[in-house]
């Protein structure tokens, strides 16, 4: 399903505290409307101000939407799923639970620019194939049978050329105006039966805004489904960010209190979905049936690749344990400068992925020269540690 159950999951599991927060928000909105009734009519917003005016575009909608799903956008999603985050971002654990069939963990980050909270979650299903999880997760018609927050869903458009699907979903929020999602999404098939999906908010001429719904203007989500290495299980890793018009702390409470119950319900219904006959599956063209292969230029990390990312391995080469401890007790600016240098290394390697050896040498050369000027470190020692790695112990 393209609308993640982060905020409107299982509301029955939110607990007394979450419902009290919702009730307080409802009372606040009621008081605000009451106050507006006593304003002079000249100060009230008129109907022309409330009604959203359709935007005029010079390009067809399918052209505008396709630009949201370029190869660059897919590579950015892959990097996020592999947790190659911005160094300054601070992530906090939210929840970690499991039972015999499913395990779930999530963490969140509040962007410094004030945008909606980012979530990264990993759900592992035992005794499950990647194809089953993909089909279940993307079957919007079946979701309406078990996800009681979904009031309505309709497909608006499917691009037969690139497989981009556009749809409209209405989800109910207790005590609040129902939320309307107009989204576009695209699915790719990666290596070893892995799958990627990118979902973004968009506009569509078949879905004009309606006053009875609150349109979710900002929505960014993506996932990767792949096998769990060495186990009869598969995982779906999700990055998610949306602005549903809720207060930040309130949205966090709803998520943390309700998501585990939602995941358990998802697992139960996926098992039911597996027993359905093929004739019960959706047959109309969709993003899954029209998905394409991940482009060859995209850098995927295999499920059995446990090697650290470039930044982590470079840190281990530059500083041993004693040096790290000295850095913690010394000047913080040196560590911050080093982090920026390592970010430069990672960026250079990414931009020269077609010639990774050349990119590594250029980045290392730049960083070595900076370190020599900054700290007066021996050039020979740094070059040996960066290019050859830490010294190998020889057995006598």
UniProtKB/TrEMBL annotation:
Entry's transmembrane regions: none
Alphabetized GO MF terms: lipid binding
Residues forming coiled coils: none
CDD domains hit by this protein: START_STARD2_7-like
Taxonomic superkingdom: Eukaryota
Cited Pfam families: START
One GO term describing the cellular component: cytoplasm
Gene3D superfamilies registered for this protein in UniProt: 3.30.530.20
The START domain, residue ranges: 88-275
Name of the protein this chain belongs to: START domain-containing protein
């Amino acid at each position: 399903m393209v609308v993640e159950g982060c905020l409107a999951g299982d509301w029955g599991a939110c607990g007394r505290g979450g419902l009290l927060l919702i009730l307080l928000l409802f009372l606040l909105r009621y008081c605000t409307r009451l106050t507006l009734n006593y304003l002079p009519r000249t100060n009230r917003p008129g109907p022309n101000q409330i009604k959203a005016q359709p935007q005029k575009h010079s390009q067809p909608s399918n052209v505008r939407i396709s630009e949201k799903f370029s190869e660059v956008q897919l590579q950015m999603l892959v990097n996020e799923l592999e947790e190659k985050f911005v160094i300054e971002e601070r992530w906090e654990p939210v929840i970690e639970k499991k039972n015999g069939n499913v395990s779930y963990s999530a963490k969140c980050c509040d962007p410094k620019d004030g945008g909606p909270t980012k979530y990264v979650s990993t759900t592992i299903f035992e005794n499950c194939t990647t194809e089953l999880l993909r089909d279940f997760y993307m079957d919007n018609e079946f979701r309406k049978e078990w996800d009681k927050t979904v009031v309505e869903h309709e497909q608006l458009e499917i691009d037969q050329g690139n497989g981009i699907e556009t749809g409209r979903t209405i989800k109910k929020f207790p005590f609040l105006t129902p939320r309307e999602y107009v989204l576009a999404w695209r699915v790719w098939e990666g290596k070893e039966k892995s799958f990627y999906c990118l979902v973004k908010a968009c506009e569509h001429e078949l879905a004009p805004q309606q006053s009875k719904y609150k349109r979710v203007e900002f929505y960014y989500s993506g996932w990767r489904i792949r096998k769990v290495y060495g186990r009869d299980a598969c995982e779906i890793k999700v990055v998610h960010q949306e602005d549903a018009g809720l207060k930040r702390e309130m949205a966090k409470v709803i998520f943390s209190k309700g998501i585990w119950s939602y995941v358990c319900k998802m697992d139960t219904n996926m098992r039911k979905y597996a027993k359905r006959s093929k004739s019960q599956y959706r047959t109309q063209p969709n993003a899954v049936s029209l998905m394409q292969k991940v482009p060859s230029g995209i850098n995927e990390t295999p499920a059995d690749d446990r090697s650290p990312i470039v930044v982590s391995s470079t840190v281990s080469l530059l500083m041993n344990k004693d040096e790290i401890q000295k850095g913690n007790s010394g000047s913080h600016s040196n560590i911050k400068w080093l982090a920026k240098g390592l970010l430069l290394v990672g960026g250079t390697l990414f931009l020269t992925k077609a010639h990774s050896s050349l990119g590594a040498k250029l980045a290392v050369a730049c960083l070595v020269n900076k370190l020599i000027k900054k700290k007066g470190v021996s050039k020979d020692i740094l070059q040996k540690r960066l290019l050859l790695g830490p010294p190998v112990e020889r057995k006598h």
